[in-house]
Each structure stands twice: as C-alpha cells, then as structure tokens.
Design a protein that fits this description.
Blueprint: H1 2-27, H2 31-58, H3 61-85, H4 89-116, H5 123-152, H6 156-173, H7 190-193, H8 196-217, H9 229-237, H10 239-267, H11 270-293, H12 298-312, H13 315-326, H14 332-360, H15 365-390
C-alpha cells in the first residue's frame, strides 16, 4: 500500500505534463517557437533533478515533493496567461522551463520513495510499476490535452489543465507518508556517487528519452491518414483526438511492458532483460522506418511496430533496478535523480531536433522524424557498446531469483 501511495504524486504530475506537452506544441505560433518552448521544460527538468535528488536526501522526500508541486502550479497558471496574451517566445520558454524544473522535484522524490519501499528481490517489479505510472499517466495527459484542444481550440485548454493541477495537489498531500529519515546535510553530488554501471547504461537511456522528445513534437506535423476504420474514426472524433489516442496507446504499451519486464528482471536477471530491450528498440525503429518508407500511414506503421515496441519497455525498469541495487542508501535520492537528468536532457534534445527536422523537411516530416530517431538510437547503442568494452565488468547482475 505504501509503495502504491508513492506512485500517486507522479500520476498527478505526469497527467498534467502530458496535457501540457500536447498543448504547448499546438498553441505555439511557429515550428521554431514550438521547439524552443518545448525544449525549455526538459532541459530545466534535468537541472532541477541535480538539486531535487540532494534535497530529497537532506530535506526529506515529502517536503521536496510539496515544494515542487506548489511552484509548478503557479508556473502553469502564469504560462496559461502567457498564451492568452500571446507573450514573446522567451517568456513562454522561461515559464515552461520553471514547470520542468519543479517537476523534477516531484519525479525524483517520488522515485526515491519507490526505491526506499522495495528490496532487491522485488525492485525490478517496483521500478516497472513506477515506469508504468510515469508513461501511462503521461499518455492519459496527452489524451486529455488533445480532447481539451478539440473543445476549446485555444489557450483556455491550457488554463483548464493548470487549474486541474492546482486542485489535484491536496488529494495526495495530506496522506503521503515520508519513507525514510532525513540524511545528514554533508555528502556528495550526483556525478561522484553514480555506480559504474550507470556510465555504461545511460547512453541508451538518453537515446530512449530523445525519441520520446521526438514523439512529443510529432502532433504538430502528424496527419492521420488511411482508409477503412482509420478514416471512420478520424471523421467521428477528429484528428487531434486520434493523435492523442495513438500517443497514449504507445505509452500504455510501454508502461505495461515495464511491469512485465520489471518482474522478468527480478527472475531472469537485470542485464539479460536490458539487452532484450536494447535489441527490441533497434528492431522497432528499423521496422517503423521501413513501413513509412513504403507508404504506410502512421497508424498502420505503429501497429506493425507494436510487438517490438513492447520489447523496448524492458530498458527502463532494468536500468532503474540495476542503479537502485547499487545505490548507497545515504545518497539514494541523489543517485535516482539521474532518471530525471537523462529524461530531461533526452526530451530536450528530441524536442529541438524535432523542430529542426520538421523545418528542414516540409514534405516528409514524419519520415524524417523516424529517421532521426533511428540515427540517435544507433549512435547511442554504439557508444554503449564502446563503454561496455572500456569498462569491462561494470554492468553485472545484481539480483537473480530462480
């Protein structure tokens, strides 16, 4: 029950983040503004994680969470106002960056709580549950954002999301327990306490989050085409809502896979599960690019790719379990902050790359985004293999239950 309670903050936060991501892209006045404003959020989230991890160790998980939620709610209300008055791009980017910065406090503290409440024998499953809530609630938020945009067609949609976030905060704040005593103020920062395995594994994580950033940019250029049932659904609910359904479907698949492969990481081994996900991700992107190249629409291409996409979901929980197993309990919040750091950097790079690719390839944006995703993933996989060779023995099994 306490483990489930630790997931609630990230559930509420990510629904708001997903809706915000869809609406920021749609409400931007140009492709370039969409990329800049979107990128500010994850880049500042990465910075916030460096602070939040340390604070969750020294000030407490719950206090760090609450500070993040209060500041985040105010920033979302201000960004809604900025959209209403059509403020300059820099103003919108700064506010969205503050939202990302404060979201890191919620994400990092919540993940540290989940790690506190699991043991080696069930940590893979616990991390899989965290990944499921993180991804699935983001997808729900994306769908909420697409629905609100279909209704309001303007900044009122973002204001609605901001108000929902403000009023949802008290739902968990009163009942959320602290999971461990506050650590001494002295200590080390993230880069000096990372276990060796993290150095080798993080390039793949960066690739995965960069692809998520590219996916978040996609609604600005995605046109849902196809015959039969696809055309029927688009005519009934509208293209914006169909895009939202596609996104939540992909994230729900990844989230469900995270639970399955998290348990597999406990039973079969962390490293084996990670390698299965690594190959699944590469195969998924190759198949996606081939499908789009031969003229299949986005819906059909994603459907064909789905089984391999499911395998990709093995990456997140296996990495989290490996790092969590090796983390010094005194610096657990600081170390688990690496999750938000990589999430922020990857999504930020993906958002900027999405804007650049869309601007360069006006007639084939979706194909270009898919090609960029494959290029990033292949490059980071090569870097991971090179680091594995250089740091032999750094990635090893930390738990295996038969």
């Amino acid at each position: 029950m306490r483990l489930a309670a630790s997931y609630v903050p990230i559930l509420i936060a990510r629904i708001g983040s997903g809706a915000s991501a869809f609406l920021v892209v749609k409400l931007a006045v140009s492709d370039l503004e969409a990329g800049i404003v979107m990128a500010a959020y994850p880049f500042l989230e990465a910075l916030g994680a460096l602070i939040a991890g340390r604070w969750s160790d020294t000030l407490g998980r719950k206090r760090t969470l609450m500070m993040g939620y209060i500041a985040r709610s105010l920033a979302m209300l201000l960004l809604a106002w900025a959209f209403f008055v059509n403020a300059v791009t820099l103003h919108k980017a700064v506010l969205n960056g503050i939202i990302g910065l404060t979201t890191a406090f919620i994400l990092t503290a919540s993940l540290a709580m989940a790690t506190d409440l699991t043991e080696v024998r069930n940590r893979g499953l616990g991390m899989g549950g965290f990944e499921f809530i993180n991804l699935a609630s983001y997808g729900v938020g994306y769908l909420v954002g697409s629905a609100l945009y279909s209704i309001f067609q303007g900044p009122a949609a973002y204001l609605t999301v901001a108000l929902l976030t403000v009023f949802a905060t008290p739902v968990f704040a009163k009942y959320l327990p602290e999971t461990r005593p506050v650590a001494p103020a002295g200590g080390m920062f993230l880069l000096s306490v990372l276990p060796p395995s993290a150095v080798v594994l993080l390039p793949v994580w960066f690739a995965l989050t960069t692809i998520i950033g590219l996916g978040m940019y996609a609604p600005r250029v995605l046109q849902v085409e196809g015959g039969g049932i696809v055309s029927h659904v688009v005519s009934k609910v509208g293209e914006n809502l169909v895009v939202g359904l596609l996104f939540i479907g992909a994230l729900a698949l990844l989230g469900a896979g995270a639970i399955f492969f998290g348990r597999l990481a406990d039973k079969w081994g962390r490293v084996k599960t990670f390698r299965l996900g690594l190959m699944g991700g590469l195969s998924a992107l190759v198949v996606l690019n081939i499908s789009l190249h031969f003229g299949l629409g986005p819906v059909e291409s994603i459907a064909i790719t789905a089984p391999l996409l499911f395998l990709t979901s093995a990456i997140g929980p296996s990495i989290l379990a490996l790092i969590g197993d090796e983390a010094d309990i005194r610096y657990r919040g600081t170390i688990m902050g690496i999750y938000s750091v990589m999430l922020g950097l990857g999504i930020g790079v993906g958002s900027l790359l999405g804007g650049l690719v869309a601007a360069a390839y006006h007639q084939a944006e979706i194909n270009a985004l898919a090609t960029a995703a494959l290029g990033v993933y292949a490059a980071m996989t090569a870097l991971h293999l090179a680091l594995s060779k250089a740091y032999q023995g750094a990635v090893r099994e930390t738990a295996r239950i038969i």
